[in-house]
Design brief:
With 82 residues, this protein is an all-alpha fold. The protein has one domain. Helix 2 packs across helix 3. The radius of gyration is 14 Å and the shape is globular.
Length: 82
């Protein structure tokens, strides 16, 4: 097993890999948040952040999870705010 085979901490396996790639891609280009999952998938591949192309459905799921994570840690959001 090489270092490349070790999943990132947090989510295991493919989901964790896609989530970490998505975090990096959005850090580089925050406008990716506004694009459809199919285009984000394309950008992840073009940017070399993933070796194998994920399904747009998985990318959409991870984008939603990332959005929820960010809302949980947003100091401007008060409990009960929507």
């Amino acid at each position: 097993m090489s270092i490349d085979d070790v999943p990132p901490p947090g989510r295991p396996g493919r989901e964790g890999e896609v989530l970490e790639a998505l975090r990096e891609a959005i850090r580089r280009n925050p406008l990716l948040r506004e694009l459809p999952p199919e285009e984000v998938t394309r950008q992840l591949m073009l940017g070399g952040l993933l070796r194998d192309e994920p399904s747009p459905e998985l990318v959409a799921e991870m984008m939603l999870e990332l959005e929820v994570e960010e809302e949980e840690f947003d100091p401007d959001v008060q409990p009960g705010d929507s």
